[in-house]
Amino acid sequence: MKLTIIGGGGFRVPQVFSAVGNPAAPVRIDEVALYDVDARRLRAITRVLGQLAGALTNPPRLTVTTDLDEALRGADFVFAAVRIGGTGARVLDERTALDLGVLGQETVGPGGLAYALRTVPFMVALARRIADVAPDAWVINFTNPAGIVTEAMRAVLGDRVVGICDTPIGLMRRAGAALGAPTPAAGSFDYVGLNHLGWLRSLDVDGADRLPALLADARLLEGIEEARLMGLDWVRALGALPNEYLYYYYFTREATQRITAAPETRGEFLRDQQDAFYADAGAPGADALAIWNASHAEREATYMAESRPEGDEGARHEEDAVGGYHQVALDLMAALVADRPATMILNVPNGSLVPQLPAEAVIEVGCAVDADGVHPWPVAPVEGHMLGLMSQVKAVEQLTIGAALEGSAELAWKAFGLHPLVDSVAVGRSLLSGYIQAFPDLGRALS
């Protein structure tokens, strides 16, 4: 089978290659095709993969191209993880919001909307090429904002595109491990939300919901990264374990103050780190794999560090980084084609799961996956602030998709102005003006 990676020069591609090239991998990938528009990044990542392949007994064949149709032709799976404008654009996404006193984060709030406005047109065009060149391929989307992008791509590809994220399944597995059930079965937990905005609301062990016991046990709860980040008292008040990105909604002021006070944003850190990596790894005679390993370790250790309190409170533990989106992608592929049914949390169409939301809206819920496809299971009723937050953010997401595809500045302004993390429609207009100034191509696309 052939796996095509769109964004093949991306920093985290070696994780995907290692996962599918592992002799114990549950699905055999014979060829990995890397596609990217940046030949310099492709060269550096190819060097890393060449060293990784040398340690494998039967590594996948590697092909590298800047020709999209060549990369897609014959693909069984297409993995999409792109960043339009690179990390330099992420810096502008974050700084433009911060300069207006608004949360600056790449996927949450106005930064995520600006990212989506640039990304949705590209990803929809990509979906059309996939439909023409590789219509039978499964498309696994990790391009952020994953919920928005997956929803836009579904209009072209339907059920052949599935959005993935590693944060919700990591939360569920940490909770399960704390209760002695590290691999909960299908239907044994209730997780509902949108991408980067969701809650684990129940977790059955031996036929009983053990989440209340976990919330009541300070020792066990201290082992949950999300509880440390937001505080044990708050997750107990919620009666649920929140996705870590909800920190930006529940502690907006604190997050914004910490990010603003930090010497650099996360985007600035990654821009500088990745610039150094690609330069060093591409140098003649460089040990590209060693350079990548060092950069990756630093990146993982500092994940969301700009939002965490100083000291041990909220700190990320080494075990919190176990897994990752590459493992989610591998589990999904194996379930779909290798008779390895899996329990997962995925970005899928709502249908009637949350009846207050549009049927076509992409939400994030527990699913059973097998050779017949992806099967979301029912969720308990969503009420109160959870429903309110989901409804408001989903409305903003759909406005953003409309703005991107219709080229509408008015819809874009509405999206910024109505986002719950933007406190004024006047600020929303200023955000739009700021992003148009930062990204002239966006200004030309919107009217």
Automatic annotation (TrEMBL):
Where along the chain is Mn(2+) bound? 165, 196
Membrane-spanning intervals of the chain: none
**Glycosyl hydrolase family 4 C-terminal domain location:** 191-422
Identify one Pfam family in the record: Glyco_hydro_4C
What is the required cofactor set for this protein? NAD(+)
The reply to whether Iron figures as a keyword in the UniProt entry is: yes
UniProt-listed GO biological process terms? carbohydrate metabolic process
Molecular function, one GO term:
oxidoreductase activity, acting on the CH-OH group of donors, NAD or NADP as acceptor
Q: Where, in this chain's numbering, is substrate bound?
A: 90, 144
Site positions per UniProt: Increases basicity of active site Tyr: 106
The note on cofactor binding and number reads: Binds 1 NAD(+) per subunit.
Q: Which UniProt keywords apply?
A: Cobalt, Glycosidase, Hydrolase, Iron, Manganese, Metal-binding, NAD, Nickel
Where in the sequence is the active site? 166 (proton donor), 245 (proton acceptor)
Question: What CDD domains would the database entry show?
Answer: GH4_P_beta_glucosidase
Q: Which family does it belong to?
A: Belongs to the glycosyl hydrolase 4 family.
Spell out the protein name for this chain: 6-phospho-beta-glucosidase
Q: Which organism is it from?
A: Pengzhenrongella sicca
Q: What is the lineage of its organism?
A: Bacteria, Bacillati, Actinomycetota, Actinomycetes, Micrococcales
